[in-house]
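Design request, tokens follow.
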């Protein structure tokens, strides 16, 4: 049976609001909390950029039951993988083993800020594979060294480790990256309701029970307002992943999404307050084979959305 999560968007809300949303979601019975990891928001209208790892530390202390999942962190440019290994281990300890590390090849939006350039997609995949090797090496304990094609580690040790290594979930946008996830990761994260992605992951050794996704939604009692919110907050994704990965700043996303209409967003995202529409959108991901589905509400009324989801949408889902 699928599990359901709530996506905390660091780009759309300040840290105090994220913690309150997490409290509401856990109290309402959500199974996990996903969190984005950005230094820039996608759009100026988002207006925030909380440091995900500070929020995660507070979440590990504040929550008791829900799993915590980065959806996702990029461990190849802005962060060195040794630092990610340490951050993840610390949250793993603080949460008593409830933390899962979702990693991906990132976006120029967040990674260019350290001045190391933005590698082409094939190089990013090479770096990601090596970064996961470094993570796993560091979690073995003891002092470790690594000299690879992209990363060097010299006599580094993580002293605070959880009882079990943190599971690593790999983000995939197509069959090739899904196959890589099956080979080297403990789980798959993807945002497209495509069965072929899940199949490619499973056919290369992946566990179908460890497949994670998120579904953007725009709830509001007034459908017209829900459509407006969807256009204002979610149009950054309208151009597809190949564009999303390459633009450097919110101003570029503002320009690239200027032609996106409100009607187009309402077609792509369930808007309003009809629970059947929301359940159908979520059901597409379940039908594609995803076992862990996070909802990502665009509006500010988390309490109202959580009540709507719990009382009206959840009963319609498996």
């Amino acid at each position: 049976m699928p599990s359901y999560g709530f996506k905390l968007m660091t780009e759309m809300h300040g840290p105090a609001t994220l913690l309150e949303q997490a409290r509401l979601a856990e109290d309402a019975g959500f199974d996990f909390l996903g969190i984005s990891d950005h230094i820039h928001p996608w759009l100026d209208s988002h207006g925030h950029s909380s440091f995900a790892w500070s929020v995660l530390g507070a979440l590990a202390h504040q929550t008791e039951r829900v799993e915590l999942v980065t959806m996702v962190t990029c461990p190849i440019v802005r962060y060195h993988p040794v630092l990610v290994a340490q951050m993840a281990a610390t949250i793993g300890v603080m949460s008593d083993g409830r933390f899962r590390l979702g990693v991906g090849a990132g976006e120029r939006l967040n990674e260019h800020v350290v001045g190391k350039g933005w590698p082409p997609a094939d190089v990013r995949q090479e770096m990601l594979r090596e970064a996961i090797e470094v993570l796993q090496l560091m979690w073995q304990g003891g002092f470790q060294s690594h000299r690879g094609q992209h990363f060097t580690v010299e006599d580094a040790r993580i002293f605070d480790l959880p009882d079990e290594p943190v599971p690593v979930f790999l983000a995939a946008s197509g069959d090739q990256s899904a196959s890589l996830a099956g080979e080297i990761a403990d789980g798959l994260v993807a945002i497209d309701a495509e069965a072929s992605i899940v199949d490619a992951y499973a056919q290369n050794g992946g566990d179908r029970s460890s497949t994670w996704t998120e579904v953007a939604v725009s709830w509001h009692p007034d459908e017209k307002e829900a459509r407006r919110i969807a256009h204002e907050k979610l149009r950054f994704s309208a151009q597809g992943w190949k564009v999303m990965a390459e633009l450097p700043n919110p101003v570029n996303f503002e320009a690239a999404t200027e032609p996106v209409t409100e009607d187009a967003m309402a077609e792509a995202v369930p808007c309003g307050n009809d629970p059947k529409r929301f359940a159908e959108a979520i059901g597409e991901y379940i039908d594609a084979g995803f076992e862990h589905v996070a909802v990502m509400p665009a509006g500010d009324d988390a309490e109202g959305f959580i009540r709507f989801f719990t009382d009206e949408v959840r009963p319609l889902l498996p």
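Comment from the thread starter after seeing the answer: thanks! Residues 121-138 form the longest helix (18 residues).
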